[in-house]
Structures are given as structure tokens and as C-alpha cells.
TrEMBL record:
Pfam families: Asp_Glu_race. The keyword NAD does not apply. Its EC number is 5.1.1.3. The gene is murI. This is Glutamate racemase.
């Protein structure tokens, strides 16, 4: 199984996969060289994901790919599916579930700018807007805050308040928030704190949907394990990667090394 993301967001997806499928082995690609995906063009995102899958495919036998990134999934999933023969699973902001859950009919959707500009999101919002208000925030700043938090840097309240200003200023806040980027799962607590002093809030995180999809695929297609190790590959060496290695310990990767994606 190949799992990839621009950064640590995909690790939240991996953590959930490990919980449900503890015997599964995987290759995790941290494409930190291209981080953040949220400020890239659709052309770049499509080409980059094809490059990642092809490069890994030439080194390791892969039989299933998990795109642990909403930005890549909303922009490139259908193209990738038509290019490769193995199953490719993506992650998407789940507006449908939010619609079922919201009581005050105000849904918040926060994702990267690239995700927000994708035609997938535009179409989905258009289809689901009746009877609900969808308040959107497109930001490329929040993913960087998650990257820093993982490395032990305190989350700045001021920066968070700036990102969420349009929601803070609303007379009634969304009671249901769709986390439309895998990096944001790491910041649930902080988001809750700045937006909701008293009332409750429901976060919609598609991580769980992805895991159950993987489970179904594995059962249906009788996919066997074809790698025996957990491998972590990064596309760029940097000091901040060194800081991340401590956090990676709990994932028990047996191989951690560089992969050239150029
Ligand atoms: N974690 C990613 C997502 O789910 C991308 C964040 C970024 O690189 O901008 O959208």
C-alpha cells in the first residue's frame, strides 16, 4: 500500500489505517519538497501525483494507493484512476454528512485554496447549498501550522484567529465543520477553542470513510501484502525533517530514506 501527502496530514490517515488494519504494511511518501500543495496549480498537482506513483511503482510492488490529501484527491483522483490499474482511494470533504448532522443549518468548510478552487468542490457546494449555508475558508496557512505543531512549536492563537476571522465575526457560528484537509485533523482542539467557548461543535473528518473503503477493497479484491516492511520516503532533506523524525518513532518505520521525485 502506498500512502502519500505533502506532509504530516497523511500521517493522521495512516494512524487510522494502522488502528483498523494493524498487520498492513505500507510505504508513506512525504512530499515535503512540494509542500504546500495548496498553492500549486492543478497541472502541477496532477503531474506530481503521477510522478510519485510511477517512481514508487518502479521500486516497490504496489497494489493499492491511498491519496491522503484532499487537494490531490479533489483535483487529480479521476485522472489517476484512469492512468493506473490498481485501486486508488482518495479523501474528500464530506459535505453530504455535514448536511445530515447540522442543526443550525450553518456548515463550515475549511480546505486549502487549491481544493476550494477545484471544480469538484464548486459543483458539490452548488448541489448541496439549498436549505443550508456553507461558510467557506480557503487557506494555505493552516497546514503549515499543523506541520509546526507536530514539531513541538506552540500554535499561535493570533494566527488561528486571523485564519478564522470570517467565522468568528458571524452572528451564528457553524455548528458543523468539515475538515477539508488532512493536516487540519491535528488542530481540532485549537480550532474548537477559538471558535466555541460554550456551544458544541461537530467535526466532519473523512479519515474514517477512507479507512473503511480500504478495508472493503482489501476484502473484495483479495489484495495480499506484498511488502513486509513499513517504509517512509521523503522528497527533501531539511532541518525540519530532522525534527519530525522523533514524532515518526511511534509509526515504527523500518526504512526512512530520501526519494528523488524530479
Ligand atoms: N494535506 C493536504 C490536504 O489534505 C495538503 C496540504 C498542503 O500541502 O497544502 O489537502
Amino acid at each position: 500500500m502506498l500512502i502519500f501527502d505533502s506532509g504530516v496530514g497523511g500521517l493522521s490517515v495512516l494512524k487510522n489505517i494502522k488502528k483498523i488494519l494493524p498487520k498492513m504494511h505500507y510505504i508513506y511518501i512525504l512530499d515535503n519538497e512540494a509542500f504546500p500543495y495548496g498553492n500549486k496549480t492543478e497541472f502541477f498537482i496532477v503531474q506530481r501525483s503521477i510522478k510519485i506513483i510511477n517512481t514508487v511503482k518502479n521500486i516497490y510492488p504496489i497494489n493499492i494507493v491511498v491519496i491522503a490529501c484532499n487537494t490531490v484527491s479533489t483535483i487529480a483522483l479521476s485522472i489517476l484512476k484512469s492512468k493506473f490499474s490498481f485501486p486508488i482511494i482518495g479523501i474528500f470533504p464530506d459535505i453530504k454528512t455535514a448536511k445530515k448532522i447540522t442543526k443550525n443549518k450553518i456548515i463550515g468548510l475549511i480546505a486549502t485554496k487549491a481544493t476550494m478552487n477545484s471544480s469538484y468542490i464548486k459543483k458539490t457546494i452548488y448541489k448541496n447549498i439549498s436549505k443550508n449555508t456553507i461558510q467557506v475558508i480557503g487557506t494555505n496557512k493552516l497546514a503549515s501550522i499543523s506541520e509546526k505543531k507536530i514539531r513541538g512549536i506552540e500554535v499561535s492563537q493570533k494566527k488561528l484567529k486571523n485564519i478564522f476571522k470570517s467565522w468568528i465575526d458571524l452572528p451564528v457560528h457553524p455548528d458543523t465543520i468539515i475538515l477539508g484537509c488532512t493536516h487540519f485533523s491535528l488542530l481540532e482542539k485549537e480550532i474548537k477553542k477559538i471558535l466555541y467557548k460554550t456551544s458544541s461543535i461537530y467535526f466532519i473528518d473523512s479519515i474514517h470513510t477512507v479507512t473503511s473503503q480500504i478495508k472493503n477493497y482489501l476484502k473484495k479484491l483479495h489484495i495480499n501484502q506484498n511488502i513486509r516492511k513499513n517504509i517512509f520516503l521523503y522528497s527533501k532533506y531539511s532541518i525540519s525533517l530532522k525534527e519530525l523524525l522523533i514524532f515518526l518513532k511511534k509509526y515504527q518505520f523500518t526504512i526512512i530514506k530520501h526519494i528523488n521525485l524530479n
